């Protein structure tokens, strides 16, 4: 109880700083409609959220984050440009780590503005100033660079879509890349199944919701994929080199320009990266030593699609990031009913700040 009270008090102080920066204070319901979150993230969200059923409203989820309801509120009629701030509890299941909190306070700031580079710099600069007393280490990344590199691969649209779907699951992404490049051999059982023209012979009764026709259709898709030429070893090597890129921002920009020669669809994201560095410098952020990690943000919420950032404790490496944020332009389009606006934001966990300050 004492820890909760201290976390809330710190959260109110952080919220006041966000309001002082020009943000409008907003609130979001603790119970959120599950159908919206399931539509955005698929069934995987169930592994991270608490669900309940309401006889009138249907399936509901305890608020897993604030960004989705804030975006929905803004797209339903908010003026632009706009800045919002909020605080409150979020709820995340921790099935594999009993030590991590499943309910904790967040304080956040969201910016809806069509000058994307300037808004990125504004939000990152604000978080840097607010967190300066705590001696945290900043890190930046860009999901847009990763997805552009995947789209540049010389392979089928279906394989690109599968890789894109698992960008936020690095282990599964790596397994798919190994399979599509031929580095992961096809098992004998899989090869036998795909090569059979009578897959249901001696198979016994069907179990589950899929019909025989649906299973046949899925097998046809797998056969088409098996007949697709493997992704070249050179492309895989380049993609892995990009994913492993860890440099200061200026050096990363130079390396990314080289990558864009082989991955032409990377060029717009590299130009945006360059514009962001200029905007950060103009906003007073020292970019010469600002770290960049190409894979940073790939285990965050799946709506980030561009610039991402985080602040970590150097004295407590066992803790998750104290603050995280990023750009989520595609989310505004999904929730905008035909409208879209560039948007970027971030959250701070005051409970973790208290642990760092101890």
Taken in chain order, the helices and strands follow as: HEEHEEHEEHEHHHHHHEHHEEEHEH
Number of DSSP helical runs: 14
Fourth-tier CATH superfamily name of the largest domain: Bira Bifunctional Protein, Domain 2
Main beta-sheet annotation: 7 strands, mixed
Q: CATH first level of the largest domain: which class? A: Alpha Beta
Let me know the average pLDDT: 87
Can you give a write-up of this model?
- The chain is an alpha+beta fold.
- The protein folds into 3 domains: 2-25 and 64-149 and 237-357, BirA Bifunctional Protein, domain 2, CATH 3.30.930; 29-62, no CATH class; 157-232, no CATH class.
- It has 14 helices and 12 strands.
- The protein has helices spanning 2-20, 34-41, 67-75, 116-131, 143-151, 157-165, 170-180, 188-195, 212-226, 233-243, 249-262, 267-282, 329-335, 350-357; strands at 24-25, 31-33, 51-54, 58-62, 82-91, 103-112, 137-142, 246-248, 291-293, 307-312, 323-327, 343-348.
- The chain has a 7-stranded mixed beta sheet with strand order 1-5-6-12-11-10-7, sandwiched between helices. Strands 2-4-3 form a 3-stranded antiparallel beta sheet.
- A hairpin with a 3-residue loop joins strand 3 and strand 4 (58-62).
- Helix 4 packs across helix 12, helix 6 (157-165) packs antiparallel against helix 7 and helix 11 (249-262) packs antiparallel against helix 12 (267-282).
- The longest helix is centred in the N-terminal third of the chain and has 19 residues, at 2-20.
- The chain is globular.
């Amino acid at each position: 109880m004492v820890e909760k009270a201290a976390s809330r008090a710190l959260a109110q102080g952080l919220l006041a700083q966000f309001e002082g920066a020009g943000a409008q204070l907003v609130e979001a319901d603790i119970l959120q409609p599950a159908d919206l979150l399931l539509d955005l993230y698929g069934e995987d969200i169930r592994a991270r959220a608490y669900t309940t059923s309401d006889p009138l409203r249907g399936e509901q989820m305890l608020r897993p984050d604030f960004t989705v309801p804030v975006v929905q509120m803004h797209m339903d009629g908010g003026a632009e440009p706009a800045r919002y701030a909020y605080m409150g509890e979020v709820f995340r299941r921790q099935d594999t780590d009993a030590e991590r909190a499943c309910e904790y306070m967040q304080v956040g700031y969201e910016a809806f503005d069509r000058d994307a580079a300037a808004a990125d710099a504004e939000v990152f600069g604000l978080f840097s100033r607010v967190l300066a007393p705590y001696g945290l280490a900043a890190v930046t990344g860009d999901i847009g660079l990763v997805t552009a590199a995947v789209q540049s691969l010389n392979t089928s649209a279906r394989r690109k879509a599968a890789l894109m779907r698992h960008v936020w699951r690095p282990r599964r992404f790596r397994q798919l890349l190994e399979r599509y490049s031929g580095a992961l051999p096809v098992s004998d059982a899989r090869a036998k199944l795909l090569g059979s023209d009578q897959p249901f012979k001696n198979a016994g009764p069907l179990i589950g919701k899929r019909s025989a026709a649906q299973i046949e259709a899925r097998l046809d898709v797998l056969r088409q994929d098996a007949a697709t030429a493997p992704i070249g070893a050179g492309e895989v090597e380049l993609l892995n080199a990009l994913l492993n890129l860890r440099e200061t921002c200026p050096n990363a920009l130079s390396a990314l320009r080289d990558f864009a020669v082989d991955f032409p669809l990377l060029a717009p994201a590299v130009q945006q990266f360059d514009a962001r560095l200029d905007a950060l410098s103009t906003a007073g952020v020292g970019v010469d030593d600002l770290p960049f990690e190409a894979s940073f943000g790939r285990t965050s919420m799946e709506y980030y699609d561009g610039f991402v950032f985080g602040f970590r404790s150097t004295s407590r490496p066992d803790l998750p990031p104290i603050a995280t944020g990023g750009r989520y332009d595609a989310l505004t389009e999904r929730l905008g009913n035909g409208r879209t606006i560039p948007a970027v934001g971030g959250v701070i966990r005051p409970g973790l700040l208290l642990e760092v300050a101890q």
